[in-house]
Amino acid sequence: AQSVTQLGSHVSVSEGALVLLRCNYSSSVPPYLFWYVQYPNQGLQLLLKYTSAATLVKGINGFEAEFKKSETSFHLTKPSAHMSDAAEYFCAVSTGGGNKLTFGTGTQLKVEL
Amino acid sequence: DAEITQSPRHKITETGRQVTLACHQTWNHNNMFWYRQDLGHGLRLIHYSYGVQDTNKGEVSDGYSVSRSNTEDLPLTLESAASSQTSVYFCASSPALAGGNEQYFGPGTRLTVT
């Protein structure tokens, strides 16, 4: 079985500050890992994904995430937050065939002036 | 451009009624999924399909059913709506390739059961 834990259901940062959203996974086999973003009243949009190539993955809108097997983590970062980054962020894990995803409970990011 | 659409976007229904939520994708993806989103639970898988005539139960399938008669559509039916099924429902699709493919999501349907 696979699972995802997102620490912190709400994170607040100042505009221009570092964004760090935490994700830890549990999987008995090498995982595929994803970060999705959801803006209000919209569906989910892929930010980035890890598929066993480079451990540092760059995504859209300046976000990146690093796969750390020893820590079973896939934290999402952005060096400088922008007001437009305010949204809900979901980490998800898949362990192969069929591309079924297991989602974390989400982190709501608030960006303040 | 290829897309995935859901209808209706908003629905209010009464307890005990049958409700069908539509999902249509033009990506030509074999894999399709239905999730529900609730505060504190993230997205939970209801049903999924790997191709025409194939359907499978997810972790929260009780009270829901799906059918897949063509590649493009995977309608979700609530056989007898309950207040516990008030939620936002998302449909998604992905190609049927080896693992690691992202899912493409529709805009969601907000369902209220009164």
Describe this entry's structure for a reader.
The complex is a heterodimer of chains A (113) and B (114). Chain A has no helices and twelve strands. The model of chain A has no long low-confidence stretch (mean pLDDT 93). Chain A is mainly β and 113 residues long. In chain A, strand 10 (87-94) and strand 11 form a beta hairpin. Chain B has 114 residues and is mostly beta strands. In chain B, 0% of the residues lie in helices and 51% in strands. In chain B, strands 2, 4, 5, 6, 9, 10 and 11 form a seven-stranded mixed β-sheet that branches. A four-stranded antiparallel β-sheet of chain B has the order 1-3-8-7, with no helix packed on it. In chain B, strand 5 (42-51) and strand 6 (54-57) form a beta hairpin. The mean pLDDT of chain B is 95. At the A-B interface, strand 5, strand 6 and strand 11 of A face strand 4, strand 5 and strand 9 of B.
